[in-house]
């Protein structure tokens, strides 16, 4: 008879990190499958195959980089790969790149994401920046203009940022924008070319709800992030006094336009919820998501970039350690402090909305260039 | 669901079905019992019998010399053989009084019963003190201490929650002695001068709720309060949070409540009405690695090896034997210890393998900590060996309920890290 020892408690919940990563990978693959089906049906088999090729490049690069790293660190390659979860980064990165991106750009971006943003920090659980976001930023900075020329249509974020200043002010102007993408329904369903996985807003939201219910992601992050963007852009709509759209008041359609265009929904569900690079406490995550939402809105409306989601994530990643130590202590005693911080953030957000609303030129007439954009520009 | 706080609790599969419907086995030791001379932290006892004396069930054997007054009574009839040092379930060798059984179980009344309805409050409290009633939920704290100064106490919460998985000993006791529970509740209400007594039972035990309600006649101010089936529902602070919607600093009395265990209430009723001390103990013997899981009623001081044998023995060659439940119970690496009064279960589980991987910083430990601590941050302070940060992060409020380890998806022994931090902070204070 042998009695073994183990410190208490002696039982464990059946939700393991391996299962969290498995469910997350499956969710991402569902989005990827939707993309393949859409591109195959709308743009032909070669576009769909290109998506698969990009994912394959990213995955293979990830496994090669991690295997070499494991060898250098004298660790067992198989166990290292299994507990490093690099493939999740690879899938997310692929879903974020524009469909026209070339394979070599994705390979280089993956090397940056896996080696520089993750392994050099000490591997899984130690990295400061979201690795996939780093990879995407590399593409944005180094490979703008790279295109394999499979699909020629401008993404909505490019168009709305460059020709509409993110502020179409009446139904006619909005229609001229929306008609290129099948109206609000087209934006919601994702039936237009763009970043491979970011366009399928409704699908991603449904997956997000499922993941939150299954405790894979924290509901606070997407709810606070998307909610804050909605409120801030509604304020902009109210101040600028833009028109209603076929009976829908501007404070509703304008925020919806923001949520359905670009990568915010994908970012909210799959990027900001990355546990490694976000704060651990509930209060911290709320502040983190609010800060990201304010930065996203600011970058979109006032910066040179068409989209703000990516940089808002990377910037908030830098704040994570600070948010963590700010909310150290007993959480029951920190509720008041959390409320105050959120109220301050809300004020900053509103100030930004006022500033943006008062300084952006409204677009009242259909711009001439709106219908003649020819190539896909690289956007977020 | 709160924006700034996690759930602070979690449903844990109870595995209660292993034992809850089985009949109660009454067991007797093969030869001797070893009654531990331990009362909380007190180890200093006056022995009241001589070697070779004949004792009966209920004979007073010893009482504490220092600390809180706690008497110790014999659980069997037979002959007192002296004191031996052996392993106690606190993992230290302690003195035990050896009594050789004569298997007649002749009983003496330990003390005269008391009519609690005509006695004064103070007489009742003194009676509980002299009867040696201790908290039977696990801590073994003398019950009378809580009732010494009941100023501002409006509620008594009787804890029949039993939130530890596998354990059904309280369920069995309340099912069998529901009337005594209600009598005990009335006595506790009187001692606390409280307005209301809530008997807290998990809503997943509707049969038990019905049973207690059926004997709640002419008990004004005593109510059954169903509570959710979550862990650690039976911890004072969580119980007060759920039932009274209050938080408190040190003791529940600050929130106007006294908490008592259901088995303690039953023991109080038996003491007042029959003059019986705590000599027998209902115990759940359960887990995947015991052949025949059962609830058993055993004399205090019976060796664990004999109890396991009566339940069919172990099913595997390598097991983890836990004194208590799987969450807060201690793993003990032999079965030579004996049943103490505050013990309520023996859980036998398969040996565990260590499969921890890196922390993914998911924050589930912070979301679920019933004390609202952030175990992941305490672990970070421990790794940095920063004692000031450890205490700033509230490590001393940890009750080691085990939630953080249970919930950790990376299978890290988080509770053990917090425990280490606690030890370091305590050493620093000295």
Automatic annotation (TrEMBL), chain B:
Gene3D superfamilies membership: 3.10.20.600, 3.30.70.20, NADH-ubiquinone oxidoreductase 51kDa subunit
Binding site for [4Fe-4S] cluster 2: 369, 398, 401, 404
This enzyme's EC code(s): 7.-.-.-
CC per GO annotation: plasma membrane
Cofactor(s) this protein requires: [4Fe-4S] cluster
Cofactor note: Binds 2 [4Fe-4S] clusters per subunit.
Listed GO biological process terms: electron transport chain
Protein location: Cell membrane
Residues annotated as domain 4Fe-4S ferredoxin-type: 348-379, 383-417
EC primary class: translocase
Thylakoid in keyword set: no
Keywords from the UniProt entry: 4Fe-4S, Cell membrane, Electron transport, Iron, Iron-sulfur, Membrane, Metal-binding, Repeat, Translocase, Transport
Recorded topology in the membrane: Peripheral membrane protein
UniProt GO molecular function: 4 iron, 4 sulfur cluster binding; electron transfer activity; metal ion binding
Binding residues annotated for [4Fe-4S] cluster 1, in chain numbering: 359, 362, 365, 408
Pfam family, any one: SLBB
UniProt similarity note: Belongs to the 4Fe4S bacterial-type ferredoxin family. RnfC subfamily.
Function: Part of a membrane-bound complex that couples electron transfer with translocation of ions across the membrane.
Subunit relationships: The complex is composed of six subunits: RnfA, RnfB, RnfC, RnfD, RnfE and RnfG.
Protein name: Ion-translocating oxidoreductase complex subunit C
Species of origin: Holdemanella porci
């Amino acid at each position: 008879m042998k009695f073994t020892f183990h410190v208490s408690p002696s039982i464990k919940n059946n939700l393991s990190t391996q299962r969290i990563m498995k469910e997350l990978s499956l969710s991402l693959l569902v989005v990827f499958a939707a993309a393949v089906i859409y591109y195959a049906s709308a743009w032909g088999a070669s576009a769909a195959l290109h998506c698969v090729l990009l994912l394959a490049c990213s995955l293979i690069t990830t496994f090669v980089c991690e295997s070499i790293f494991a060898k250098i660190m004298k660790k067992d390659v198989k166990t290292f790969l299994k507990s490093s979860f690099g493939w999740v980064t690879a899938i997310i990165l692929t879903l974020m790149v524009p469909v026209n991106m070339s394979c070599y750009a994705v390979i280089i971006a993956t090397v940056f994401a896996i080696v520089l943003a993750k392994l050099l920090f000490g591997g899984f659980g130690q990295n400061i920046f979201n690795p996939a976001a780093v990879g995407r930023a590399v593409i944005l900075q180094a490979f703008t203009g790279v295109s394999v020329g499979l699909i020629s249509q401008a993404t909505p974020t490019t168009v709305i940022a460059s020709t509409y200043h993110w502020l179409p002010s009446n139904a006619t102007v909005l229609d001229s924008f929306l008609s290129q993408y099948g109206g609000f329904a087209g934006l919601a369903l994702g039936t237009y070319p763009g970043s491979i996985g970011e366009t399928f807003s409704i699908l991603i939201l449904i997956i997000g709800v499922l993941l939150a219910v299954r405790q894979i992601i924290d509901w606070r992050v997407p709810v606070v992030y998307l909610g804050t963007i909605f409120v801030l852009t509604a304020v902009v709509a109210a101040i600028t006094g833009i028109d209603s759209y076929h009976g829908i008041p501007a404070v509703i359609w304008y925020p919806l336009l923001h949520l359905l265009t670009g990568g915010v929904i994908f970012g909210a569900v799959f990027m900001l919820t990355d546990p490694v690079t976000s704060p651990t406490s509930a209060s911290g995550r709320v502040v983190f998501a609010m800060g990201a939402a304010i930065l996203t809105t600011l970058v979109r409306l006032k910066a040179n970039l068409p989209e703000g989601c990516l940089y808002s994530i990377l910037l908030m990643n830098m704040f994570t350690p600070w948010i963590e130590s700010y909310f150290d202590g007993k959480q029951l005693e920190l509720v008041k402090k959390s409320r105050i911080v959120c109220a301050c953030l809300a004020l900053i957000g509103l100030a930004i909305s006022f500033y943006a609303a008062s300084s952006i030129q409204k677009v009242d007439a259909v711009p001439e260039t709106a219908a003649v954009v020819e190539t896909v520009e690289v956007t977020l | 669901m709160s924006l700034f706080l996690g759930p602070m609790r979690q449903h844990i599969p109870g595995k209660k079905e292993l034992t809850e419907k089985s009949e109660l086995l009454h067991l007797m030791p093969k030869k001797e019992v070893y009654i531990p001379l331990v009362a909380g932290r007190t180890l200093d006892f006056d022995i009241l019998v001589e070697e070779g004396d004949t004792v009966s069930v209920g004979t007073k054997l010893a009482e504490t010399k220092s600390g809180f007054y706690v008497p110790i009574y014999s659980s069997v009839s037979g002959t007192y053989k002296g004191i031996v040092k052996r392993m106690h379930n606190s993992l230290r060798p302690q003195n035990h009084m050896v009594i050789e059984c004569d298997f007649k179980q002749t009983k003496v009344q330990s003390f005269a019963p008391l009519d609690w309805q005509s006695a004064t409050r103070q007489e009742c409290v003194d009676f509980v003190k002299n009867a040696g009633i201790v908290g039977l939920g696990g801590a073994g704290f003398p019950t009378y201490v809580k009732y010494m100064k009941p100023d501002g106490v409006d509620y008594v919460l009787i804890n029949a929650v039993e939130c530890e998985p596998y354990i059904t000993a309280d369920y069995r006791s309340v099912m069998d002695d529901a009337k005594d529970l209600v009598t005990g509740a009335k006595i506790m209400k009187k001692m606390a001068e409280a307005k209301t007594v809530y008997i807290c039972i998990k809503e997943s035990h509707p049969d038990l709720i019905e049973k207690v309600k059926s004997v709640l006649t002419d008990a004004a101010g005593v109510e059954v309060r169903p509570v959710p089936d979550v862990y650690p529902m039976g911890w004072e602070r969580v119980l007060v949070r759920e039932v009274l919607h209050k938080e408190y600093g040190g003791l529940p009395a600050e929130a106007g409540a006294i908490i008592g265990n259901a088995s303690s209430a039953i023991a109080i009723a038996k003491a007042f009405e029959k003059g019986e001390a705590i000599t027998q103990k209902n115990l759940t013997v359960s887990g995947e690695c015991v052949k025949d899981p059962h609830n058993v009623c055993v004399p205090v001081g019976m060796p664990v090896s004999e109890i396991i044998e009566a339940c069919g023995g172990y099913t595997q060659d390598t097991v983890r034997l836990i004194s208590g439940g799987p969450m807060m119970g201690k793993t003990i690496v032999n079965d030579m210890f004996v049943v103490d009064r505050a013990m309520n279960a023996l859980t036998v589980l398969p040996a565990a393998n260590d499969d921890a991987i890196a922390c993914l910083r998911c924050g589930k430990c912070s979301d679920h900590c019933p004390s609202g601590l952030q175990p992941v941050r305490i672990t970070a302070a421990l790794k940095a060996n920063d004692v000031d940060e450890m205490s700033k992060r509230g490590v001393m409020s940890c009750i080691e309920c085990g939630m953080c380890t249970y919930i950790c998806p990376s299978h890290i022994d988080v509770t053990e890290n917090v425990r280490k931090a606690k030890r370091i902070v305590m050493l620093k204070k000295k």
